[in-house]
Design brief:
The chain has 13 helices and twelve strands. The protein is α/β, with parallel strands linked by helices and 310 residues long. The termini are far apart.
């Protein structure tokens, strides 16, 4: 078996299923576990990914005017690696290499016919189903069942402890700071699992655009910025798009010190086994009386002062 994963969450699944020794290629975004970094890279973005959130949004829009994806697949590298299994996704043309990318690559030069496994992680149930789908395709269905059962058990324990506090904080989860976008897909489900109220974005639906006026009117108890594809430090640098807007200082979450930034790249926007860690981080942020902040400074950080993000 020779596996090429073209999506970071799938690489995590491959290793969580005990199949890491069979992975022979990866996408440019596959960075966990650390051992995956040594594998040949099979993709790259079509545009420069440096710059702030407004500039990246502009480049994505311009690229999608003339292409069905913002990524290139290296057909020659795939041919050289001769995979038996290729893992990609159908969820988002911006988040990762898509099924269309892979189909295009295979139709052009590929001499073999690998099994293509297309993941569809629109919601929590989709993440579990994707793990099982990958496990079945690779002949380790029992491992897939065990992994999913373990994830569900751990998440249930976290949810039960959060709910035992009796609090129901109202939460605004922000997936992109400029233009403003709320977190969707599985993030609203994670918030609801803890007994908190998600104010923007629908479970199982793509992340929606937000109006600043609606955020001001909602006046959430907590605000969590988790930009897609950004690590913690980069998320911190982009907070000025929020803190510089009219009315920011008057928001309850700002006044009471419940504004947080999170690593969207490694955790919240990555639909793989570490979604359990994402839930735990939300619990640490929203229910500090019940959870030790063991991920603070690594997966999330709190606002110390309004000036800190200026």
């Amino acid at each position: 078996m020779r596996i090429v994963s073209l999506i970071a969450s799938a690489t995590e699944m491959v290793h969580a299923l005990g199949l890491g020794e069979f992975q022979v290629g990866r996408s440019h975004e596959c960075d966990y576990p650390a051992s995956a970094a040594a594998l040949p890279v099979c993709t790259k973005p079509k545009f420069d990914v440096s710059g702030d959130s407004r500039e990246i949004d502009r480049r994505v829009r311009e690229t999608l005017k003339s292409a069905f994806s913002v990524y290139d697949v290296f057909e020659d590298e795939l041919e050289r690696l001769r995979p038996t299994h290729i893992v990609t996704q159908t969820q988002c043309e911006v988040c990762a290499v898509s099924l269309k990318d892979v189909e295009s690559a295979l139709s052009q030069k590929f001499s073999t016919r690998p099994v293509v496994i297309a993941l569809e992680p629109h919601a929590l149930s989709g993440i579990f189903q994707d793990i099982l789908r990958l496990a079945r395709a690779c002949g380790v269905e029992e491992r897939g069942n065990a992994l999913v059962d373990s994830m569900k058990e751990r998440m249930s324990a976290i949810a039960a402890r959060a709910k035992s506090t009796g609090r129901h904080p109202r939460v605004a989860a922000v997936e992109w700071p400029e233009p403003l976008m709320a977190a969707g897909n599985w993030v609203p489900e994670l918030i609801a699992l803890l007994g908190a109220e998600n104010l923007f974005g629908e479970p199982g639906a793509h992340s929606p655009w937000m109006n600043w006026e609606d955020l001001i009117a909602a006046d959430p108890d907590a605000i969590i910025s988790m930009p897609c594809g950004y690590d913690l430090e980069r998320a911190r640098r982009e907070m000025h798009w929020l803190s510089g807007r009219p009315g920011w200082d008057g928001l309850r979450a700002v006044r009471e010190g419940r504004v947080f930034v999170a690593d969207g790249n490694q955790y919240f926007n990555r639909p793989g086994p570490r979604v359990v860690e994402s839930l735990r981080m939300l619990a640490e942020m929203l229910f500090p009386e019940a959870f030790e902040a063991r991920h603070e400074g690594v997966g999330w950080a709190r606002q110390r002062s309004v000036a800190a993000f200026r």
